[in-house]
Amino acid sequence: MKLKTFLAAGLASSLLAAGAAAAQEVKIGIAAEPYPPFASLDASGTWVGWEIEVIDAVCAAAELDCVITPVAWDGIIPSLTGQQIDAIMASMSITEERMKTIDFSDPYYNTPAVIVADKSMEIEATPASLAGKIVGIQASTIHQTYANAYFGDAAEIRVYQTQDEANQDLVAGRIDAIQADSIAMADFIGSDAGACCEIKGAVANDEAILGKGVGAGVRKGDDALRESLNAGIAAILADGTHAEITSRYFTTSIYSE
């Protein structure tokens, strides 16, 4: 009887442990600053947007219990390495520099970087054309690195904590142009606030700086989570979920291999 009781207790303990493991949360870090149409707060305080829906779909396909966890953008990698979050899905480009610190999943979107300016300005996405101009970029992004490398010698680079702040200064005429992701900028110029402006062209590609698309960042060595996210990304690309979500936000695909 004692043996049976011991075995039953052991079995119950094992089942509880297994249940706890299965229910373990995966904290998915997103930027606390709004970045429409990828992620922003609606009137009720709920995070919405293309990337939020993709996170939900990837986690469901990978059978992960994910929790959206907003973190200030400039502290998002330290939050990952410091274990406050388990992964980053915040439009973070896969770059050689970042891969020195963290690992990445396969890409789940890939779009070019562009220059945006007032419709009345004759500006091209080249260093020569931007010489003498004030170019706004968001801090701690690939765009800051790129602008410093390619435009910094001839243009003034003005750094903003959020993309919204850069957009507002462009509309107000305090800067001449901004460099940012093409899809985010398409959303901006399609709004009433951005009706003044247009995309002037894509910057010349530099994969070492601009990266190989956007992926989910994970801690070095967290191969199990990385592979689970890869499986989820592959699943929603294969079954049409990625395309269905994209069709509700954009007129063209934002995924290219």
Task: Describe, in plain words, how this protein is organized in 3D.
This protein has 257 residues and is an alpha/beta fold. The chain contains ten helices and twelve strands. The strands form three sheets. Strands 4-1-5-12-6 form a five-stranded mixed beta sheet. Helix 2 (50-62) crosses helix 9 and helix 2 runs antiparallel to helix 10 (241-247). It is globular and about 50 Å long.
Which properties best describe this structure?
alpha/beta, 10 helices, globular, five-stranded mixed β-sheet, 257 residues, disordered N terminus
Give the topology:
Layout lengths: L1 H21 L2 E7 L8 E2 L5 E2 L1 H13 L2 E7 L4 H6 L5 E2 L13 E3 L8 E6 L8 H4 L3 E5 L3 H9 L5 E5 L2 H10 L4 E5 H8 L7 E6 L4 H4 L6 E3 L3 H16 L2 H7 L10
Parallel strand pairs: 1-4, 1-5, 8-9, 8-10
Antiparallel strand pairs: 2-3, 5-12, 6-12, 7-10, 7-11
Helix pairs in contact: 2-9, 2-10
Brief rundown of the structure:
The chain is an alpha/beta fold.
Which strand order do you get reading across the main beta sheet? Answer: 4-1-5-12-6
Any idea what the radius of gyration is? 21 Å
* Helical content class: 25-40%
Shape: globular
What can be said about the biggest beta sheet?
5 strands, mixed
Instruction: State the secondary-structure class.
Output: alpha/beta
Number of strands: 12
Low-confidence stretches: 1-21
Task: State the separation between the terminal residues, measured CA to CA.
Answer: 62 Å
